[in-house]
Amino acid sequence: MITHIFTFVLAALTGVGQASLIDWSPARRLNWEDFKAAPDAASTNAALTSSSINVEFGYDDEELSFTINCRFDKTKSWVKVKTNDILLHEQGHFDIAELHARKLNQALKGYRFNAKTVSDDVNRIYDSVMVLHHAAQNEYDKETDFSRKKDKQLIWQKKISDNLQDLKAFGSYGTKTTQK
Questions:
Q1: Whole-angstrom Cα distance, residue 101 to residue 91?
Q2: pTM of the full predicted structure?
Q3: Residue ranges of domains in the chain
Q4: Whole-angstrom Cα distance, residue 59 to residue 76?
Q5: Closest CA to 99 of 63, 139, 46
Q6: d(CA 110, CA 105)
Q7: CB-facing half-sphere around the CA of 117: CA atoms within 13 A
Q8: pLDDT tens digits for 45-87?
Q9: What are phi and psi of 151, to 5 degrees?
Q10: Strands 51-59 and 4-9: what pairing?
Q11: Is 68 in contact with 54 (CB distance < 8 Å)?
């Protein structure tokens, strides 16, 4: 029996220690001390959140197993202007990443295992969720004007919170198995 193991990562984590990564948790909100990177002097952004959605999976002739992580990277996240509104906006970016990690979990749990195409299938599922993730992140910044439109920021906070609640069942990232 041959077993294959693969890892996909939205943001490169090479050389990053676990201590610099924060797993998403409803109980652990970001604070300004989490933003350890030097600010990008050329950027007009007030802050930058670097998060990753990672899926590790393996399979054999009969089943697919996978684990998903959504993490904030302290060493790649930075801040120039520290206000509560901006911190809330940056938390929103991390929450949107978590929302899409849950969508990935949902899609993989619903996957009908096919030993002949499993690697391509998981790649396709991952890529399709990441397209949605990037679009949501861009839409969030555009509609809120990077936190400056307070009314839109409040609408997005509720939208993100509601969506996280709707996908609560997919927020547990223990090893999942899909069988034939």
A1: 15
A2: 0.90
A3: 4-171
A4: 32
A5: 139
A6: 9
A7: 8
A8: 999 999 999 999 999 999 999 999 999 999 999 999 999 999 9
A9: -65, -40
A10: antiparallel
A11: yes
